[in-house]
Write a structure and sequence with these properties.
The chain is mostly helical. It is 21% helix and 0% strand.
């Protein structure tokens, strides 16, 4: 499994998701954050 995190300016997230889908991306998520320090995101990979 590979994980790629892409940061884009506010308002551009949908365009990035659409591009990823056009390249057959799976398990896509769009998160909005506003912090001075990095935010930890933990995904549940059990299934």
């Amino acid at each position: 499994m590979r994980q790629l995190i892409i940061q884009v300016p506010r308002g551009n997230g949908k365009a990035v998701i659409d591009i990823a889908k056009s390249h057959h991306g799976t398990n896509l998520a769009r998160l909005e954050g506003n912090a001075e320090e990095p935010i930890d995101v933990v995904g549940d990979t059990s299934s």
